[in-house]
Structures are given as C-alpha cells and as structure tokens.
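Q: I'm building a small set of examples for a reading group on sequence design. Run inverse folding on the following structure and report the sequence directly after it, with nothing in between.
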C-alpha cells in the first residue's frame, strides 16, 4: 500500500506542476490562450484611437486653452503659435516612468531652448494630484492637468 501512496502523491505533484506551468504561461504568453497581451495597440483601441492615429509631425494642433499648473499662466494654441513646442502627453501620476521622462527632458532643457523648443507636459490628472507629483519630482516646466 505504501508504494501505491507514493505513486499517487507523485501524480498529484506532477499534476500540480502542470497547472502552475499553464497558469504561468498564461501571463508570459497570453496569446497562447487567445487573450491580448495589453500591447500599446490595444491601449490605443481602448482609448478610441487607432495605433499611430495621432497627429503627424508638423501638423496643426487642435485649438486648446488651459492653465499651467505651476505659473497659473494660460497656455493655448495662440500662445504657442509661432514657435516649436514639444507637447508631452503622459499617463499621469500613476506612471512613475512618465514623470522620470519629464525630468529627463528637463535635463536637456538648455538644448531645447537653444533650438527654440518649449516643453509642455499634459496629464489626465486632477490639479491637486498633479501638484503633489510635480512637487515630488521637482518638475519646473509648464504642466497642464487635463482631467
């Protein structure tokens, strides 16, 4: 009887290992199970835009007007016209990497200014949430909260 119990426990362990492997594979290779892996194309589609459906380089930006969270100054298509502007759209305070990217862009700020390029960051956050993140990351360039 001892030998049968040993075989049975080995089979249970092997079956458990297979289950764990299948579950792990569903995270690593989601396409195998017919699920999308959450690619940027999926994200764009979920947001109602086709992947790559943004404005082309040099295109006219749709008219907008909003307040810079730091200075309180109005930023609009009119105030930005006649120059080059890098509009940096990010996922906002939930995205640490986005704020690190803003910091990185600010580090080359002198080079941007030399080339006549202004940086304006736009996030989908509330002003209060964005103020806290801007303070935490030491952001100094214009930031718009577009909740």
């Amino acid at each position: 009887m001892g030998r049968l119990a040993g075989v049975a426990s080995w089979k249970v362990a092997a079956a458990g290992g297979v289950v764990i492997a299948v579950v792990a594979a569903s995270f690593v290779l989601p396409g195998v199970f017919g699920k999308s892996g959450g690619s940027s194309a999926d994200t764009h589609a979920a947001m109602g835009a086709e992947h790559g459906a943004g404005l082309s380089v040099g295109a006219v930006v749709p008219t907008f007007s909003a307040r810079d969270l730091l200075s309180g100054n109005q930023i609009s298509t009119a105030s930005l016209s006649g120059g080059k502007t890098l509009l940096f759209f990010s996922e906002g305070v939930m995205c640490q990497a986005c704020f690190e990217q803003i910091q990185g862009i600010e580090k080359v700020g002198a080079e941007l200014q030399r080339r006549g390029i202004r940086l304006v960051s736009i996030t989908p956050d509330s002003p209060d949430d964005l103020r806290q993140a801007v303070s935490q990351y030491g952001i100094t360039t214009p930031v718009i909260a577009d909740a």
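DSSP finds six helices and five strands in the chain.
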